[in-house]
Specification:
alpha+beta; OB fold (Dihydrolipoamide Acetyltransferase, E2P); four-stranded antiparallel sheet; four-stranded mixed sheet
Length: 222
Amino acid sequence: MLGGLGLLAGMLLIAEGRRWLPPDPLPVAPAQDAGDLEPASQVPVQDTRPGEPARKIAEDLIAPPPLDPSGIERIEPRPPLGELGLAPRPKMPMPRDWRETLLFGPVAISSAVFEAMGRRVAISGTIGMDPDRTCTFDNTAWPCGQRARAALNAWLRGRALKCLLPPDADRFAIAAPCALGKQDVGAWLVSNGWALAAPTGIYDKAEAVAREARMGIFGPPQ
């Protein structure tokens, strides 16, 4: 009796478990070799473009007209519309053996020449005023040379200048560019009217501004 009940219970468990099993996988067709594949039928491509060539439209407007070289005349270029169109003056290259040198305690002996540490340096690109130079403004003469030298000394106040000098600058006077901090000494002198711009220098515009504003030697007595 007990054995029959156990057999019946086992059959019920088996029948119930089949409901939770995944279905049988679908059969997979065997892979075919590349040689067994048949090529697809090739359909010829027909050209749908018209058989006639493209028609030329307004050929005389598109093509450049014929030119006669004998009728071409070369004329001078027009002047620039303003100073912005002018090419800047090229800077003179400095020799490679020149080095930036700090000169301490500079003392002006004229408006564009100073002495420091046994060297005499003239600010390049400028024309200084001699101490005995006099200027005239509205028929009034005044010692502009002495005033220009005093203005340079007052601006320097003994501060060190950084100049581009050759190795043997202590043997003779030299014209060199100098700077006080980030300020170009030549630009300061000319723009304030205490020196003239050299013809081959780069300060001609600064001199024009100083003349227009009547700065320094171009203005009234100071």
